[in-house]
Fold:
Amino acid sequence: MWRFAIALIMVVLAGNIILGQVFNTLLEQNQTQRKTRQFSQEQQSLLAQVKLIRSAFDSGIKEHAINQWLELNSKNEGFNYKLQSLKDYPLPSSLLEKILVDGAVFLESNEGLTAYSILTQGQVLLVTQTNIESEDLQTAWLFTLIFYSTLLVLLLLFLAPLLLRLYKLRTAAIAIGNGQLDKRLKVGSLWYLKDIEMAFNQMAEKLARLMQDIKLLSGGLSHELRTPLARVRMGLDTLCETDNPEQKAKFETRINQNLDDMEALIHALLHFARLQNTLDNTAKTEIDLNLVLKQQVEKAHDPRCQLITEQSACFIQGDKHYLNLLMSNLLNNALKHARQHIKIQSTQDKDFTTITVSDDGEGIPDADKEKVFKPFVRLANQANDDTSGYGVGLALVERIVSWLGGQITIKTAKQLGGACFTIKIPRR
Structure:
């Protein structure tokens, strides 16, 4: 989510800076053009007012009447008239010469555009047009409105992909809630949204796997417990019907064995059910794979096992306990089905670490290569018809390999002829 926050901050800052520069330049150009275009009209209007007053003054109207007229007309909107002494408004000689030539000098101030004109040798007439700034203010407000509107459109364009993705996320969440556990989001190309979509898909994948595990465990538990429960019931019925001490002791032993089998089954089921949660909460560290393989082969202590590793250390990111559990289950499976030879080999290149465990047993038919990784699936060995165990060993192997980010495949061993389990774990 931090990527989206960074992207949003970048868009807001860039939009403010770039749009601010653009609109500031446009506003300045507009004001310059407006002033250049309108000053001539305003100057003519002010000059007409000056000429009107000068003509009235030249006609012989008394000064106090002129003052009353100026005071009266100053109340009108748009113009302000003042008659002051030249001593109070001294002007440079250059401006005085310009007044004599043009009749007035025009200067702009905060109050507006003012025309300076000399009525007599000692009096100055000031006529100010005060409605100039109102149009400038309107223009500034208009540009401000356009600026924030453009920035808002830019933000909406930025947020549009997010809103679309959120809508798709909502649709996918509703679908998963309705039982469509295979629903996934298509990961887009926007770098600040990819992590959200990938996180949702990972959550959906874990949820689907959890539901699958629940179905497998519930179905497997009911199936696996049916036989020992029937044996326990039969043994109890026999105990109730016989008085022979030897038969009672015999059936008591069988009942205890069946109860032990049931306890072991439940323990295996709980171990498998808790595996995914414990894997998610386990930190990965650097482990020497060759050392783990060597320890497992020494622990098996079987002359059929042959270990082939590189001389240098082979490090992978994982957990020592779960790597030992993985290799222990793979090796026990090979020991269970092999005749005379088992080969364990590890290799490493710049991209992958590869582990192979092959044997010279009967192998696994192509139709069953995907089934063996499901809990409670046990394939009968064609040589000895050994179906011991609960069928969760290879399921544990597949789950641990997935946690390591790798893949496991089953092929036919080229040299030994039996099954060959190949695990490829990416180094990065």
